[in-house]
UniProtKB/TrEMBL annotation:
The lineage of its organism: Bacteria, Pseudomonadati, Myxococcota, Myxococcia, Myxococcales. GO terms for cellular component: plasma membrane. It comes from the Bacteria. Keywords: Kinase, Phosphoprotein, Transferase. Residues 448-667 form the Histidine kinase domain. This is histidine kinase. GO terms for molecular function: histidine phosphotransfer kinase activity; phosphorelay sensor kinase activity.
Length: 679
């Protein structure tokens, strides 16, 4: 008990040990003369006493009746790090008072030698002095009085013993034991310890006792505590004792009366039996760790039952379905419809690397697919199939299939699986082929009919043009005054009919692949200017002002006639749907592209109609109000895309429309046949 740099005392109470001190014990007093006689040969007894005090390995400190430290030896300073400060007093020490040691100290001043219990002392807990860098230390003290010649005790000596390491080790051991016991008792695993050939319970944690219905286990033999345990399980226990080898039981069905009320039930366990050995290495017991897995086993059984039910449902479906393992592509299931389509049961215990030889599957062009190209392999790699078409050559014949896939993640106890439903579209393909033949026949008919119509229309147009020129030569003649207006009207109708026939002829050429492009150097601005001049009479009738913004030439490699047809269709549409308002055209060149913009301020196009106006026979407005077959934009799109360009529209109802055509000045690849784009 001393204040010092970083040291102190604190601890539990032990039984106090006291005996009579040096100033009181008669035997001690009687030995004093003898001691003095023995020291008579020492010339300087004080030096001898000083040497003993200074060189003693036992820490000593001497305190006066007020509790102040008057003397301490080097061993004391080595243990505590410093001497107590002058203001320290044993009788003001809060820890001494708290532990009740002040009573022992006063007994020492009364002449007794007393022994303090082992205490933990932490000087940081003192309040009457301030000490920095303190340490907590475990000490035991022997306090004995120092009597003067007259027998009066004015000082006491304290001999200290540092037991920090010993006490810390003992407390650590106790803590480890407590933690181990807490771990065993609070473990979510049922644990028991059996000793001897009769398998007597030495330990059973609370979970095991709860699972056993609260039966008394500890101290009782296994068959006495659990008489309804199966002989097979007892044999497992005895086998561990005999062989000394650990044993594991997986999902062991243990059928006993768990509640101890005569009701037997089955629960499933994963159990591990480990042998226990004595100090000589002989097996004298075993410890059991048991995990109840009843819920997992029952859940798996439910999943297996559900799997069988699902397979029965899939077998009743008319659509062929197979399931493949993600990653490997191994087939794990095929329903009855898929087996019927194959002509026999589809093998599901074969590696996916062998599927290329087992299954004869080709693409629509007749090329056989390898194992990696099969739909199940592609879907297993994570590729999502949507209507992949292939021909399956089976014993039952050739079937054209439309195959899709869906990756189902692991859920509800089922592993992840790739689902591949098939659609047998053999009949649809046959019908499609017939329809394509019918379409080709129709296109051939349109082509022939257009050619046949074009010949008389050309003759009629030339004749009407001659009449029109005659009326212009002598506009005041009776014939011109009487028939001039009718001739102009008939000429416009014939020209309109000629445009319709030309449109049908273009469609037939696109459908039959006879539309070819003749590329040459073309100035797009000059071509647009020519079209604007040609449409001037029609613009006047529509009360539209057609404006072409100025700018430099835009020269590229295109088909002049087809490009003129695109511009004509766009300008004609702008005049038709923007009558009475201006039409503006702009030609510009930017980053290797020529761009044509045709802007009208007419009725506009709704958003849903914008997606379909570039298709064949599609219109954005009612045909009752506006004429035409709905082919102009379709033909324009096909021709633009054939020249590797794009066409798009930006429009809002009531706010007009802007059609934009972008063409590369020099095509990066040869132009494609228009029929390829149209298809």
């Amino acid at each position: 008990m001393a204040t010092h740099k970083g040291r102190g005392s604190r601890g539990g109470k032990q039984r106090k040990q006291t005996h009579r001190g040096a100033g009181v014990d008669d035997s001690v007093r009687s030995s004093e003369p003898a001691l003095r006689e023995q020291l008579s040969f020492v010339t300087d007894p004080l030096a001898l006493l000083e040497g003993l005090f200074l060189h003693s390995p036992v820490p000593y400190a001497i305190f006066d009746v007020e509790g102040h430290c008057r003397l301490s030896n080097p061993a004391y300073r080595a243990m505590f790090g410093s001497v107590p400060p002058p203001e320290y007093s044993l009788f003001r020490d809060e820890l001494v008072a708290k532990l009740g040691l002040d009573v022992l100290l006063r007994r020492a001043f009364a002449g007794e030698t007393v022994q303090t219990p082992v205490i933990w002392y932490d000087v940081k807990e003192l309040r009457h002095i301030e000490v920095k860098d303190a340490h907590r230390i475990a000490i035991a003290c022997t306090c004995f009085p120092l009597s003067a010649t007259g027998g009066e005790v004015r000082h006491i000596a304290l001999a200290y013993k540092d037991v920090t390491a010993e006490l810390a080790a003992r407390e650590a051991e106790q803590l480890e034991r407590s933690r181990l016991y807490q771990l065993l008792t609070q473990s979510p695993v049922a644990i028991n310890l059996l000793r001897g050939p009769e398998l007597r319970f030495e330990f059973a944690n609370p979970l095991l006792q709860k699972l056993m219905g609260g039966r008394a286990l500890v101290g009782r033999a296994l068959l006495e505590a659990i008489p309804d345990i199966s002989p097979e399980l007892v044999s497992l226990y005895l086998g561990v004792l005999e062989t000394g080898e650990p044993v594991a039981a997986h999902e062991y069905p243990l059928v006993i009366d768990y509640a101890g009320q005569g009701q037997v039930e089955t629960r499933y366990w994963n159990m591990l039996y480990e042998p226990l050995r004595d100090e000589r290495g002989r097996v004298d017991g075993l410890v059991t760790f048991a995990f109840e897995v009843t819920e997992q086993v029952l859940a798996r059984h439910a999943v297996e039952n559900q799997q069988r039910w699902l397979e029965a449902v899939l077998d009743s479906m008319p659509m062929p379905v197979v399931m493949a393992e993600p990653g490997t592509g191994n087939l794990v299931f095929s329903n009855a419809a898929a087996d019927r389509l194959h002509g026999q049961h589809i093998p599901t215990r074969v590696s996916a690397s062998e599927y290329g030889a087992l299954f004869h599957v080709t693409d629509l062009q007749g090329r056989r697919l390898s194992g990696d190209e099969l739909p199940s392999s592609r879907a297993a790699r994570g590729e999502k199939l949507e209507g992949m078409e292939a021909v399956w050559h089976t014993d039952a014949g050739e079937r054209v299939l439309s195959i899709s896939s869906e990756m189902l993640p692991a859920m509800h106890g089922h592993p992840a699986v790739t689902l591949l439903p098939f659609l047998d579209i053999t009949r649809l393909k046959t019908v499609e082929q017939r329809l394509q033949e019918a379409i080709r026949a129709r296109d051939e008919f349109l082509s022939v009919a257009s050619h046949e119509l074009k010949t008389p229309l050309t003759v009629l147009s030339l004749r009407l043009q001659a009449f029109a020129r005659a009326t212009l030569v002598d506009p005041e003649s009776p014939w011109a005054l009487r028939h001039g207006r009718e001739v102009q009207g008939m000429l416009r109708q014939v020209m309109r009919l000629a445009d319709l026939v030309n449109g049908l002829l273009d469609v037939s050429r696109i459908g039959t692949g006879r539309l070819r492009l003749e590329l040459e150097q073309v100035d797009l601005r000059a071509l647009v200017q020519e079209v604007v001049v040609r449409f001037q009479p029609e613009a006047e009738r529509a009360e539209c002002q057609v404006e072409l913004e100025g700018g430099p030439p835009a020269v590229g490699t295109w088909d002049r006639m087809r490009l003129e047809q695109v511009v004509t269709n766009l300008v004609s549409n702008a005049l038709k749907y923007g009558a009475g308002r201006p039409v503006r055209l702009r030609v510009e060149e930017d980053a290797g592209l020529a761009r044509l913009c045709v802007r009208d301020e007419g009725i506009g196009i709704s958003l849903d109609a914008q997606a379909r106006i570039f298709h064949k026979f599609e219109r954005a407005v009612s045909e009752r109000n506006y004429g035409g077959l709905g082919l102009g934009l379709y033909v324009a799109r096909t021709l633009v895309e054939a020249m590797r360009g794009v066409i798009r529209v930006d429009s809002h109802p009531g706010e007009g429309s802007t059609f934009t055509v972008e063409l590369p000045l020099v095509p990066e690849a040869p132009p494609v046949a228009a029929t390829d784009l149209a298809s």
